[in-house]
Design brief:
It is a single chain. This protein is α+β, with helices and mostly antiparallel strands. It has one domain (17-149): 2-Layer Sandwich (Tetrahydropterin Synthase, Chain A), CATH 3.30.479. It is 24% helix and 35% strand. It has three helices and seven strands; from the N terminus they run βββαβαβαββ.
Length: 150
Amino acid sequence: MLKISPEKGFKTELQAPTAVLVTRRVTFAAAHVLRRPEWDDRRNKEVFGQCAGDHGHNYVLEVSVSGEPDPATGMVVNLKDLDRAVKQAVVRHVDHRHLNRDVPFLEGVVPTAENLALVFWRQLDGQMGSGHLQRLRLVESENNSVEVTR
């Protein structure tokens, strides 16, 4: 914010923002299939195309946390703690797994990038210590990514 003071002419004073956004990036590999069990093969292929068969991705998950930097450390969140939270809540469950079969918190979910991002948000929300989950971005491929924001 720029403040212009009427005293002593046009003196300007810049104020620092009160919140900072910190983003951490992690990767994981997982397989999945996009299909609805109540639909026949023809309908699943019409809707999901080639993704209606088993395949995998090397995902990139970006988690952004906002807050005020701690005066003693200068950090919004300790990156070691953020890494630990993301790995405990999400990565350890999904890395080198089949998302349809191996991940209890994805049971009954069609694992589209959109649904994965929303479920990962639920897994992470409230796990950021002093920071607040502000943004989650899931990159499924070089052509596809999804963002969830507060």
